[in-house]
């Protein structure tokens, strides 16, 4: 009998300087509360919660140890949660993420975080191409206004793109947290 799939929640780059700006992230207040609700749901379902934290170069706003580099203080973190450091947009690139997921027996990922159009997008695509069953929490990721697109439109665009990607095995699911909780 095959092993049942095991899901984990991946929270990407929800760091002080990225969320609190400047400029302030789109839907900042609801982003943190929705991610915390996803964390609560994951814990109720005995899912591992993994935080990904971007390490910038020395002297940059995301230099390790700086106030802006810290994971956001409003996140519902626990000491037992795993934190994976990364230096590229893709959370799998030169990190321990894949080995961590393998050691936990994870085959399904719920993905939330910042920035929809950069690190979340890169990680969603990478995870799907590696064969993970990916569910993006549609209302638990965000970006900022960009020169050519507003933050709210950006979020909708990314949700549409991910739901329409051609991926091996299974399509990327894009669902609001309320549907995952049902």
Shape, principal axes of CA atoms = globular
Number of strands: 6
Average pLDDT level? 95
In sequence order, what are the helices and strands, one letter per element? EHHEEHEHEHEH
Widest beta sheet: strand line-up: 3-2-1-4-5-6
Distance between the termini: 27 Å
Query: Can you count the helices?
Result: 6
CATH topology: Rossmann fold
- What level of helicity do the residues show? 25-40%
Beta-strand percentage?
A: 15-25%
CATH architecture: 3-Layer(aba) Sandwich
Structural class: alpha/beta
Superfamily (CATH H level) name = Isochorismatase-like
Q: Strand count, sense and closure of the main sheet?
A: 6 strands, parallel
C-alpha-based Rg, rounded: 15 Å
Low-confidence stretches: none
| Count of separate structural domains | 1
CATH class: Alpha Beta
Features of the shown structure:
Rossmann fold; 6 helices; 182 residues; 6 strands; alpha/beta
Structure description:
- With 182 residues, this protein is α/β, with parallel strands linked by helices.
- The protein has one domain (7-181): Isochorismatase-like (Rossmann fold, 3-Layer(aba) Sandwich).
- Helices cover 34% and strands 20% of the residues.
- It has 6 helices and 6 strands.
- The chain has helices at 16-20, 28-44, 97-104, 116-129, 151-163, 177-181, and strands at residues 7-12, 49-54, 82-86, 108-114, 133-142, 173-175.
- It has a 6-stranded parallel β-sheet, sandwiched between helices.
- Strand 5, helix 5 and strand 6 form a beta-alpha-beta unit.
- Helix 4 packs parallel to helix 5.
- The protein starts with 6 loop residues before the first strand and ends with a helix.
- The mean pLDDT is 95.
């Amino acid at each position: 009998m095959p092993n049942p799939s095991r899901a984990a929640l991946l929270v990407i780059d929800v760091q002080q300087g990225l969320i609190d700006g400047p400029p302030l992230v789109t839907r900042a207040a609801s982003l943190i509360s929705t991610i915390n609700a996803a964390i609560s749901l994951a814990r109720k379902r005995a899912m591992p919660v993994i935080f990904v934290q971007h390490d910038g170069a020395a002297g940059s706003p995301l230099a390790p140890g700086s106030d802006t580099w810290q994971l956001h203080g409003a996140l519902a973190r626990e000491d037992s949660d795993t934190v994976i450091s990364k230096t590229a947009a893709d959370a799998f690139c030169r990190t321990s993420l894949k080995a961590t997921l393998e050691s936990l027996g994870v085959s399904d990922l719920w993905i939330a975080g910042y920035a929809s159009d950069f690190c979340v997008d890169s990680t969603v695509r990478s995870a799907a191409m590696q064969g993970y069953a990916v569910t993006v929490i549609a209302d638990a990721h965000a970006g900022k206004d960009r020169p050519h697109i507003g933050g709210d439109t950006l979020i909708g665009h990314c949700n549409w793109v991910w739901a329409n990607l051609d991926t091996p095995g299974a399509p990327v699911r894009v669902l609001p947290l309320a549907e995952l909780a049902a």
